[in-house]
Prior knowledge:
The chain is an alpha+beta fold.
Amino acid sequence: xxxxxxxxxxxxxxxxxxxxxxxxxxxxxxxxxxxxxxxxxxxxxxxxxxxxxxxxxxxxxxxxxxxxxxxxxxxxxxxxxxxxxxxxxxxxxxxxxxxxxxxxxxxxxxxxxxxxxxxxxxxxxxxxxxxxxxxxxxxxxxxxxxxxxxxxxxxxxxxxxxxxxxxxxxxxxxxxxxxxxxxxxxxxxxxxxxxxxxxxx
Length: 201
């Protein structure tokens, strides 16, 4: 196994195939959503988009010219009602064969550097609740658990929601629209509005 120096940099279009391999390694772990890796062309398009998005960065950790780790950074408010920004770190992953070499620390160090440059006050990292090693790693760095993130497809969520509640909500929206339309028609039919309309011609 190579022991070259680790370089952390922004992703480049030429990293697409390596990024696909990292994703496959990431998705092979338990309880991951979206196990299938995207096609290389789609990954290249995503890299282009991310490189031109000022509020996001995709970092790769490179050893001997090959990306072996990744972290997605995104600047966003700490909460919907706070002005303070946080750097949200997601999809933090190091290839299994390159772990325990400080690569994850270097990726988070780069995230902290960017947060300081952007005057963001917090770092928020998301990892799977079942990823014991990753959670222990983040806990050792002083990141406390503040939430559990759960995810589902829309279709699966819809299948679990009460049908009556869904129909009731939809009926309420339709009824409100109909009421607004009928109110406008009723107002138009008043003698005062008809008269003012004729005078305005």
